[in-house]
């Protein structure tokens, strides 16, 4: 690892890195086990990635003096989280936390009657800090119902109920491939929102 080219002014800056998941670098919930398989990595690829990332973590700790392999968010975007923390000394935060803080989300939630959020695919991995779970956890503190509209519902999505999600709906209105669904995104989203809000308006 060669860091001589780093701009010395970086040492005088306070940096924040926004990550979309809180996965550590290694282990059963590390990026090589939890994230890369969704990108097409085979079991053999996962083993190779685990060895490579473990080696990187060892070298990084020896060179920089700190070991961040278990840091929440270290495995975000493959390994960007640990790079941001170890090399640039960033304060690693979940992106949804940063956005909600900037948007003054607490005030908005306090005034809301219903919270609607979205995700491309809602599944067990969403619990690792994805946007809808960040929103539902915040809304839970105000006892607000949360509806998730997702492109699809994957394995383990029901666990989101324990994190403040009231209900979740997939957009597809019947069996279809992703290639067929994508051009109809706006149409499907509008139809699902209309059905949802009709139910909400006519609730007892």
UniProtKB/TrEMBL annotation:
Gene3D superfamilies reported for this sequence: Glycerate kinase, domain 1 (3.40.50.10350)
GO molecular function: glycerate kinase activity
UniProt record, GO biological process: organic acid phosphorylation
One Pfam family here: Gly_kinase
InterPro entries named among the record's database cross-references: Glycerate_kinase, Glycerate_kinase_RE-like, Glycerate_kinase_sf
Highest taxon above the source species: Bacteria
PANTHER family registered for this protein in UniProt: GLYCERATE KINASE
Protein name: Glycerate kinase
Organism this protein belongs to: Vreelandella sulfidaeris
